[in-house]
Amino acid sequence: MPNAKRLTRRLGLKTVVAAAVALPFFSTASVSAVGSPGRRLEVMTFNLRFASTTEPNSWTARRPAIRALLLQERPHVIGTQEGVHQQLLDIEADLGPHYDWIGTGSAGGTRDEIMAVFYDTRRVTPVEHEHFWLSDTPDVVGSNTWGADSIRMVTWVRFRDLGAGGREFYFLNTHLDNASQNARARSAALIGERIAGLDRSLPVLVTGDFNAAAHESPVYDTMLRAGLVDTWDTAAERSRLYATFHGYRPLAPDGDRIDWILATPGVTAHRSTVNTFSLNGQCPSDHLPVQATLTLA
After folding, report:
1. Which of 24, 138, 173, 206 would be 262's cystine partner, CB 3.0–4.6 Å?
2. 43 lies in which domain range?
3. In angstroms, how far is CA 78 from the centroid of its own chain?
4. Number of folded domains in the chain?
5. CATH number for the domain including 164?
6. What would the pLDDT profile of 173-207 be if each residue is shown by its tens digit?
């Protein structure tokens, strides 16, 4: 882990940063100490699809569907992939004043993909966060040494759960490469190494688009060997399974689940869902969001 630290003035977080040039983007929502009722934590992973202008699935066309989906579900924590800065500001505005987010551009700028972590400030509050890059030089902003098609990274946040007596947990969000199996494999190994360096007395949640099918890839095996379980498998109840990437084509029952919510074994998964929401025929994204209802150990 890098040693350089800085204090984020607005939230008062003790933050470990990768480099001074990679300043995290934060929204302007205020933090509330009001806890949500109950101990169950609602978590979502969602590849948003970047803010394309190509019709019929431009960001302008899809934004109302994403707004309706998120307002209907109201997850406590959301790991998003592919979102760019303005797109995330739109989502922040649509979610309303009780949500905030943490993230930084993968190449250190505002036009790049951001591994954003949105959170309901009434339920959780961040204590610490960090970004690292999926490469041989993980603390170098924008580094890409494994032949990945795009710069890939992880954002993690240590949260305090206001609805569970102040229980703390780690939340990691990532997006593995779509083109290079070598990059995916090495990325999974690095994530496992970084998880091993965290305070293992605390629960760990990992969300992401892994670009690999659950149960059918070395990436999946590596993540489970890192001490994680798949909340889809451990959930007491599950929705119908669909391929989580559909590319705006008809949904594929029992297809590949490449978007996962993983957790340390002590986390109880009550329900896991592949959400097929659409609004007037408009899909929110080319991926289906995956959700889990959890109780932390």
Report:
1. 206
2. 15-295
3. 6
4. 1
5. 3.60.10.10
6. 999 999 999 999 999 999 999 999 999 999 999 99
